[in-house]
Amino acid sequence: MSKLRLGVNIDHVATVRNARGGSTPDPVRAAILAQEFGADGITAHLREDRRHIADADIDALMDALNVPLNFEMAATDEMQKIALRHKPHAVCIVPEKREERTTEGGLEVAREENQLAHFIAPLREAGCRVSIFIAADQRQIDAAHRIGAQVIELHTGAFCDAHAEGDFATRDAELEKMRDMSTYAHSLGLEVHAGHGLTYDTVQPVAAFPEVMELNIGHFLIGEAIFLGLGPAMAEMRRLMDEVRT
Ligand code: PXP
Question: Is the pTM of this model over 0.90?
């Protein structure tokens, strides 16, 4: 099986920084360290309300990184302009609601197909790999494929939440759906990524899907880094991912 890429999401470092309104801890420093510790990519979500990552962070990440930046953003004109100015390696289109604490669900691609097709076309022309963050739902995968996305990222949140709540029937059903939909998306020629809410306890069943090429992990890793340091926290995640890819 091919090696699974680990994308480290550094939004939560910016959340801590912004809690004080100063300049520390610096998410760009965290990204550079994550790169040194073997991250295959860095993920950052520039939200419309700038609650964590700021525009200047994106400028600095583009200058500082050697690994690909996966720029998460809502499908808005403002974000499209920023993406076209920077031309990051990948752009991941996510749904965004101001009142949510984090990205709660996948994007409704099927309902907004025409609009999204127009939205992503210039991003693709600019050389960005376009990824769409969606639930493991065949309708959404078909729509993502039709609009010309190259990648889908499966939302692992429902699976991880069910695990945390001890609702193992739901957890296993969510896992089964993601397994089937990874295979389906791959059969259409889409590259499959996954992420949201993954921890040491939940990463392995997802990492074991042979079609999944990349996991994007933030909140848990940054939390573990408080106790272990970023390098050891990433090394343990990497070990668990690699263990099921043999
Ligand atoms: N992938 C996407 C598309 C996301 O929106 C997020 C959260 O920002 C993640 C991965 C990482 O999720 P978490 O921080 O829960 O690991």
Answer: yes
Residue to substitute in 9, 11, 52, 202 for testing ligand 1 pocket (most ligand atoms within 8 angstroms of CB) = 9
CATH level 3 topology of 5-243: TIM Barrel (3.20.20)
Answer yes or no: are the C-beta atoms of 11 and 220 closer than 8 Å: no
Query: Rounded to the nearest whole angstrom, what is the distance from the C-alpha of residue 103 to the centroid of ligand 1?
Result: 7
Residue type, 244: V
- Looking only at the bridges linking them, the beta strands covering 151-155 and 129-134 are parallel
Per domain, the residue ranges of the chain are 5-243
**Mutation test residue for ligand 1: of 79, 154, 196, the one with most atoms within 8 Å of CB:** 196
Q: Are 75 and 47 contacting, i.e. CB atoms less than 8 angstroms apart?
A: no
pLDDT (tens digit per residue) in 18-72: 999 999 999 999 999 999 999 999 999 999 999 999 999 999 999 999 999 999 9
